[in-house]
Amino acid sequence: MAEAKQLSGAGLRGQVAGETALCTVGKSGAGLTYRGYDIADLAEKAQFEEIAYLLLRGKLPNRQELDAYVKKLHSMRGLPYALKSVLEHIPKDAHPMDVMRTGCSMLGNLETEEDFSEQDDKIDRMLAVFPSIITYWYRFAHEGVRIETESDVDSIGGHFLELLHGKKPSELHERVMNVSLILYAEHEFNASTFTARVCASTLSDIHSCVTGAIGSLRGPLHGGANEAAMALIQKFKTPDEAEQGLLGMLERKEKIMGFGHAIYKESDPRNAIIKQWSKKLAEEVGDTVLYPVSERCEEVMWREKKLFCNADFFHASAYHFMGIPTELFTPIFVMSRVSGWAAHVKEQRANNRIIRPSADYTGPADAKWVPIEERP
Ligand SMILES: CC(=O)SCCNC(=O)CCNC(=O)[C@H](O)C(C)(C)COP(=O)(O)OP(=O)(O)OC[C@H]1O[C@@H](n2cnc3c(N)ncnc32)[C@H](O)[C@@H]1OP(=O)(O)O
Ligand SMILES: O=C([O-])CC(=O)C(=O)O
């Protein structure tokens, strides 16, 4: 049986790299809080826009503030012509995370943050426009249509589904998207957030901070794991096949995406929540394969390695059941995490010192210069 995870060693593991009032991860083993509120409560009771407000403005909005915030975000969904034009030039086989990165960067050219006093408006604009960026490109590249990026749906999650599918989402799907965006919104000093904070610490602009963070999130060890988890579960036709497949992968010492975590020791509290929604969606679509396969993977990984599902694993089946193409999974993470990234950028700016750690040198000492003609 595996030993409890030790938070030490390479990758700055277990080292405190700064302060935050935004989030706690893994306090007493398994918890997750945003500004002191438990994730289970938030996922059950809140709407994502409320959480974005909480993270970005420092408190839960009252009814009037929330209505005004939702209205503001709703009014900021349009894409400038130059951005549409850039998106139309990105090839169909591009990775959608590269599209997000380019889209965010282009927005920074068109609507540059000239002064930090503009930060809230620039951040709200990104929250509002990211679903438009990804769906505009996706439907243009894949279906040859130029979609209208306005919709009547107030929620960011529902709006994304409507733009993607060209029809109003069901109540259930809108609800699941809402929960998903809440679960992904914030997670302390994870790799992409740390990227954003390092960038912010140089007093760079908000679009640079978020563009860099998107690049970090893209990797399969971080946000990209939800796509990789989908690729894994789709390989198996039955739970028994999944069990055999996983045992083989473990024997070959392959990484199983969607399992394990840098901080949590026994479980990721977001998993139980999204798993329950994945189950509901599986029932809705009459799935008899993907959900049971996912459950068996969870059982096998815990039994064999004491590795648990992280937030990404059951997101894969949940998104799939809602008809979302696999390559759009990580861009949804961006649509959500931009709230956390931006809140961290604000926090860093409010109490800044450039982030510049040191390294232990392991290279050669006293190397003697050799003229180029004499080098082997
Ligand atoms: C939203 C998110 O970003 S959540 C994370 C998403 N990423 C993934 O799902 C990718 C798969 N998981 C992983 O690669 C890792 O678990 C990470 C990157 C999340 C955490 O990395 P670390 O903190 O270095 O992992 P940890 O210290 O717990 O690893 C302990 C051992 O378990 C192994 N291990 C950890 N996760 C996995 C996994 N998913 N599959 C197989 N083995 C694993 C490690 O290789 C390591 O073995 P070793 O001691 O023989 O080298
Ligand atoms: O905290 C981490 O290292 C990764 C993670 O789960 C997240 O960013 O949501």
Automatic annotation (TrEMBL):
Where does this protein have coiled-coil stretches? none
Give a Gene Ontology cellular component term annotated to this protein. Answer: cytoplasm
InterPro entries registered for this protein in UniProt: 2-MeCitrate/Citrate_synth_II, Citrate_synth-like_lrg_a-sub, Citrate_synth-like_sm_a-sub, Citrate_synthase, Citrate_synthase_AS, Citrate_synthase_bac-typ, Citrate_synthase_sf
Classification via PROSITE patterns: CITRATE_SYNTHASE
GO molecular function term, any single one: citrate synthase activity
Record's signal peptide: none
What CDD domains does this protein map onto?
Answer: Ec2MCS_like
Q: Could you tell me which pathway this protein works in?
A: Organic acid metabolism; propanoate degradation; Carbohydrate metabolism; tricarboxylic acid cycle; isocitrate from oxaloacetate: step 1/2
Name of protein? Citrate synthase
Whose protein is this, by species?
A: Marinobacter gudaonensis
